[in-house]
Amino acid sequence: MNIGKKIGILILGLLIFSSCAEEKTTKVLRLAHTLDTKHPVHRAMEILGERLEKKSGGKLKVQLYPSGQLGGERECLELLQIGSLDITKVSAAVLENFINEYKVFSIPYLFRDRPHSFNVFDGEIGDAMLTKGDKFRLRGLTFYDAGSRSFYTKKEPINSPKDLEGLKIRVQKSNMAVAMVNELGGAPTPISWGELYTALQQGVVDGAENNLPSFYTSKHYEICKFFSMDQHTSVPDVLLIGLDTWDRLTDQEQRWLKEAAKESTTEQRKLWAASEKESLDAITKAGVKIIKPDKKPFEKQTEVILEMFKDDPEMINLIKNIKSTK
Fold this sequence. Notes:
Elements: H1 3-18, H2 20-23, E1 27-32, H3 40-55, E2 60-65, H4 73-81, E3 87-91, H5 92-95, H6 114-122, H7 124-130, E4 138-144, E5 149-153, E6 168-171, H8 175-183, E7 187-190, H9 193-201, E8 207-210, H10 212-217, E9 226-233, E10 237-242, H11 243-248, H12 251-285, E11 289-291, H13 296-301, H14 313-324
Parallel strand pairs: 1-2, 1-3, 6-7, 6-8, 9-11
Antiparallel strand pairs: 3-10, 4-10, 5-8, 5-9
Helix pairs in contact: 1-4, 3-12
């Protein structure tokens, strides 16, 4: 067990002990994540807590631990699995290391546009995906919008795939993200989100890829002055509850939680849209050059990634169903 996980368990143990009196009448669901408190996804979680407390008449509350207080995304998932944490938010790209089907969301240019992705997340495909983690003690509650991911660099802009050749690009610990950067000619370098600012500063990597709000709230714009909006993937965030916690809730409590999660998703999408505009305005004022390259060369060069699934009929069928969703 790594040090971060041990610390997380110790902190949670102390929290449980200190709140025993309150929990005689109130169930407190502990929700940990890695994002800054200014991030729109964090605000959505606050809304989730507000709605849940109101629906339950104070019987259910959410206690938030943001900014990686209890560890990174993988550590939080592991804490969920052993029942030491109740809820967390992770990128679907991290979740693919636990649940194979989540690789589908990291396929470049899978979605036609934002409405298409929402129809997938909110429909039968999304509902089925949220239960895929049950065998790993992880139950999905909802998908939060995480926008489109694009490349940003320190020294030179990315106008076409050839501009990525030889560049060390930070990626999430995702086989799909690694494959994508490889196909575009870059050198994928998995680094944890919390270590990325320093890695960029020290030249460990030449750039990274993420959405606009994360680029802004992380202050990576202080180092990287080129943001290329190639919008290669639209990987959602996934809100998950540990199956042990889920099973301890009554049917009514489960309904309250699902309703609150759905309502927080509706609000989160509005917050996200506003945050994208705010972030774009702010980084432009800070001197970041915004590049809007032709996406077709990027899409063409990454088509080969679909070959990874040629011997997996379930994944091929999932891809087909997503692409045919109206």
